[in-house]
Hints:
Layout: H1 2-27, H2 34-49, E1 52-57, H3 59-63, E2 69-72, H4 79-83, E3 91-96, H5 105-111, E4 115-117, H6 122-137, E5 141-144, H7 162-170, E6 174-179, E7 194-200, H8 214-235
Parallel strand pairs: 1-7, 2-5, 2-6, 3-4, 3-5
Antiparallel strand pairs: 6-7
Helix pairs in contact: 1-2, 1-5, 6-7
Amino acid sequence: xxxxxxxxxxxxxxxxxxxxxxxxxxxxxxxxxxxxxxxxxxxxxxxxxxxxxxxxxxxxxxxxxxxxxxxxxxxxxxxxxxxxxxxxxxxxxxxxxxxxxxxxxxxxxxxxxxxxxxxxxxxxxxxxxxxxxxxxxxxxxxxxxxxxxxxxxxxxxxxxxxxxxxxxxxxxxxxxxxxxxxxxxxxxxxxxxxxxxxxxxxxxxxxxxxxxxxxxxxxxxxxxxxxxxxxxxxxxxxx
Length: 239
């Protein structure tokens, strides 16, 4: 019963934020701070409905000036309600082109200045890389999930190259953001509060690196994030 009530409230909340956000987006389209505002509107009330306490330890992320590549692990569709609380200023995201067709949310994603990519079209993918390089050099950060898909398991999937190509091309730092494994503890049919830790790691510099350094850069980032997630798991109760 509680689960169904939560789904109803979250659905109504999703529609309400979409309508309000659409008005904001039309008043200031493609503003690089739109995504941060929309993320807050979605996440803060939704996390309360879901009884999720987000413990944000993201000093390195918020201290980093805009114009970096932010990489985070991706567990479920509920990530928006958790990571939305820590999005820094002047940050946009990269998403699949199909996101643009989701009613209200897709329009907000577009008006937020986010980048929609058709992964099946090689020409469009190259064009998107040029766009992201310009965005980064203009002092706007880009948020991306390097695993490329949702992954609730204990081990991170192999990272895809896109985020790291962007960082190397623009010569900007990479800031890893790690989220504790909340999907294993989430119970939407319970009123018990659950804690989720979001922790950012120190920026990884890319200036002076070349494409030959790409594999080592990817492995360094993935290893650091895996160690951080494992450590956070030890800090939280098992159930």
